[in-house]
Amino acid sequence: MVSREQWIARRTETNFAGQIAGIGIDDLVMKVVSDFRAELYKRASRRIRQAWRPAEGGAIPAGQSRSGPAAILKAASVLYEKGLRKDQASLLKRRVKLPAPVISIGNLSVGGTGKTPLTIWMCEFLLEIGFHPAVLSRGYGAKGKNPGRIPPSLDERLPELFGDEPVMMSEYLPSTPVWVGRDRAASGGAALAGGSVDVIVLDDGFQHLALDRDLDIVLLDCRNPFGNGFVLPAGPLREPASNLKRADVFVITHADGNVDSAPLKNRLGSLFPTIPSFACRHILRGIRLERGGPLFHPGDLSGRRAVAFAGIAAPESFFDDIRKAGIEVCQSFDFPDHHRYASEDILQILSSASRHGAGLIITTAKDFTRLPPFLRNIFAVAEIGIDFGKDGEDFRSFLQDRLKRISDSTWTGR
Q1: Spatial CB neighbours of 385, under 8 Å, sequence gap ≥ 6
Q2: Helix crossing, 164-172 with 115-128: angle to 10°?
């Protein structure tokens, strides 16, 4: 019988050179194009991130103005904010109330604050205490007009039809229906029609004011919560920081050992004294060496050589997590968020692994859903989770208390 250690050794000593043989000259030409495109993306993203960061670091108080972006971008932000206020006022007038509680998980700025991992955490928590949630998502990048519920299927077209993040959530939460559609009130009604769902979790819902909610959870990245203080396009904010007053609770993300969440908690407490704050960090829960395989502790792979790639908003954090586990990352590739992988991208990744003698190719769970099925059997997937640490017990108590306080007329099936 093959031991656990022998199985890991065999699965982490893959020779990826054989996977390159079927890629022809056309793909080699496309690789050059892909490299050029990726470099342009990196440079543009770097410039945008630099422009959006505070000049002296730290959080910027809500409503504070400052110099920084070009005048034309500031003017565009003023127009954006005026249009936003008008649109939000219109949505609030025709807001829909579902016959079940709605828990919204959202954020204030563009970028990777960690909404999807927290949505998964929330559904697992609700299941743990006896509820039956359904997730509503818009499905960024989805091409289906009325995609509806994600089916339990391994069809490689699902990410294109429904979006990569909803498909990932449906795989992580096999007992929780995930519905995708722009009209999330309609999706919520359809989810409740089956009778088994008794609570709705609204993914990326802070700006989706067309649907009423009973609990508004807003995530703020501890490393850069307010950017440079401007709304789009001069800054990263989707809406002014003063609108945080609509929130019921703040969750401060990426509060790891290198970033102290206390200053941001104090800042939020002074600006919004009635809204509680809880801090969490993202952790590497484990790595699966093949689809459906066991989840190994990252330390089990310490000392292994790997190539890593990701198409997410903040890929460096992901790469750092792998390195902290003791895995030697020979080369890392960052692609645009929600990137659709073409043969030239795969060639680039496989060639790197072969050239460096890496026995592992590791990617994120979100990127994993966008890979062709045959690659899911040879690429490893890293699973990222949420850890509330010392705030965990208080946050759970807060949620349970809020759930108890929701009126019986709203809470169906309890």
Answers
A1: 117, 121, 282, 283, 284, 285
A2: 30
245 shares its domain with 323: no
Cα→Cα distances 305→178, 302, 358, Å: 36, 9, 5
**Are residues 151 and 214 both part of a single domain?**
yes
Name residue, tokens 């979100």: 366
The boundaries of the domain holding residue 297 are 7-45+283-385
Strand runs labelled E in 365-406: 380-387
What distance in Å separates the CA atoms of residue 92 and residue 209, rounded to the nearest whole number? Answer: 6
Residue 85 in any domain: the answer is no
Pairing of strands 281-288, 380-387: antiparallel
Q: List the 281-288 sheet strands across, edge first.
A: 295-296, 281-288, 380-387, 360-364, 305-310, 328-334
297-332: pLDDT as tens digits: 999 999 999 999 999 888 888 999 999 999 999 999
Residue 380 CA to residue 46 CA, distance in Å, equals 28
CA distances from 114 to 44, 155, 195, 284, 333 (A): 23, 26, 30, 13, 20
Separation between Cα atoms, residue 107 and residue 342, nearest integer Å: 31
Phi-psi map region of 8: left, alpha, beta (phi>0 left; psi -120 to 50 alpha)? alpha
Q: Does residue 131 share a domain with residue 196? A: yes
Residue with tokens 């001069």: 234
Identify whether 1 is part of a domain: no
Distances (CA, A) of 292 to 154, 165, 171, 199, 296: 12, 18, 10, 29, 12
160 lies in the same domain as 191: yes
Asked if 254 and 161 sit in the same domain, the reply is yes
Two tokens, residue 292: 């459906």
Residue 253 and residue 113 share a domain: yes
Give residue-wise pLDDT tens across range 177-224. Answer: 999 998 999 999 999 998 899 999 999 999 999 999 999 999 999 988
Higher pLDDT, 88 or 111: 88
- Beta strand 281-288 with 295-296: parallel, antiparallel or unpaired? antiparallel
Cis peptide leading into 233, omega within 30 of 0?
yes
Query: Quick one: how many helices (H) and strands (E) in the chain?
Result: 13, 14
Residue 16: strand, helix, or coil: coil
Residue 55 lies in a domain: no
